[in-house]
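Input/output pair, single chain:
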Amino acid sequence: MSIHKMRDGVFEVRWREGGRNKSTWVHGSHELAKKIERKKMSARDENRHLDVKREVNFRMSALIDRYTAEYSSKKKSAEREVSILDRLRRELGHLFVREVDGVSVQRWYRGLTDGGLSPGTAVRHFNVMHHMMKRACTIWSKETGIDRNPADQVEVYRPDDQRDRFLSAEEISNLKRLLDGKIHRVGTRDLNRTFYRTRMIVIIALTTGMRMAEIFGLTWSDLHYSEGLIAVRAKLKGGRNRYVPMTAELASELRTYPAVIGEDLLFPPRLSSKGERQRLEHSFATILDLASIQNFRFHDLRHTFASWYMMNGGDLYELAKILGHSNIRMTERYAKLGKTHIAKTGDTAREMWKLMSARTEQKAV
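Output:
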């Protein structure tokens, strides 16, 4: 705030409000100008955010466009966020950003679960909204007219996804037997490419603890046969690389797996796949049904690896490195399965091969 004398009996009062410089001319004495200055200062300080909101008309649809261009489109999860942002546009796009308060965000969030979305999926929708509104109230505050994140006022239910489901020794051997039996088409020696591909992906997940997306991102150059390691494309925080063990048995399987000509990926996307997103639910579900394995999902193969790792005397901190956990708390869920935590790393991957082979050998006898 400042007062400038323009000429006798005329003063200019200047102040800053809502990120803008403002001024007004006062005709009269200097004392009158000071009185006007105090009133402007008081109004600014008491109603600062309200004044900003009255002045800025920036719609949510424009915010969504900007967020998509500068953030969402550059994420690995860009394709999944398209539907989230489309839903946001349909439901809130007509509003000005300044009109979206905690109540409206809470109503929108409640509508997600009431509309049939699972709690976990609703949280993913909310996370996108929260990040977008955080940008809106910080680096884009002048355009949007808000200086606080309305999503901070919403209480979100984050489900405890600490599933304890992992395969028993019998289930592991049954799964391997079914995978082996589906390699060829019924009554022929012709390769069933769909199930052969599924078999290879499942074996990698079961013996390395890799996530589905990480497996689909594998290239032939990621296989370090001489070191017995597989490089995982998803890097850890700080730019550090991550490696998982590759046993001789897994290396042998990978050496015989046919590469697609002209493709560096082990499992290139099929023509029916949308972008990088790939799925094998149908073939995997068929295998689970035939093996009588219930209440199981693909990600539980990762839990199976980690659980058997700890039950074979594995070290919790080594497991965190293999799984790529940035916080040891994420790995501690498996601590209860280990009888003792020793410095020596248990060869869980090799134990998996023993379990998968045991039942097959018994049947052969």
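Confidence is low (pLDDT under 50) at residues 49-54, 339-346. Residues 8 and 162 are 76 Å apart (CA to CA).
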